[in-house]
Specification:
Blueprint: E1 2-5, E2 8-11, H1 26-35, H2 42-56, H3 63-67, H4 74-80, H5 85-93
Helix pairs in contact: 1-5, 2-5
């Protein structure tokens, strides 16, 4: 499927997750955050950068792992991304939905 985000046509799956990380850029991340009703702050970008790095290194993501990352604790993660934090954060980061998410 294709979806136009931030004026660019990008490949997404049926749930709206990007299927080609190479298409992601900051303007797409900002547009996806707006769709999720999130105003990105530097703390959000810290978490998104961490998620993208873990994805590039093929590290499976989970809420527990993020809580132990030293980047953000679980409480703050839920404050930054209140509705389904891991699903929302990975979607904004342009990476596939983690296997740990239902």
């Amino acid at each position: 499927m294709e979806k136009t985000i931030a004026g660019k046509s990008i490949a997404v799956n049926e749930e709206g997750y990007m299927t080609d990380f190479k298409q992601w850029d900051k303007s797409i991340g900002e547009a996806l955050a707006t769709e999720a009703e999130i105003n990105l702050t530097p703390r959000h970008w810290d978490v998104l950068t961490y998620l993208q790095t873990e994805y590039r290194n093929e590290v499976p993501l989970s809420i527990r792992k993020i809580g132990k990352s030293g980047v953000v604790d679980i409480k703050e993660f839920y404050q930054l991304f209140p509705k389904a934090p891991l699903k929302t954060a990975t979607k904004i980061a342009g990476i596939p939905k983690p296997a740990s998410c239902i």
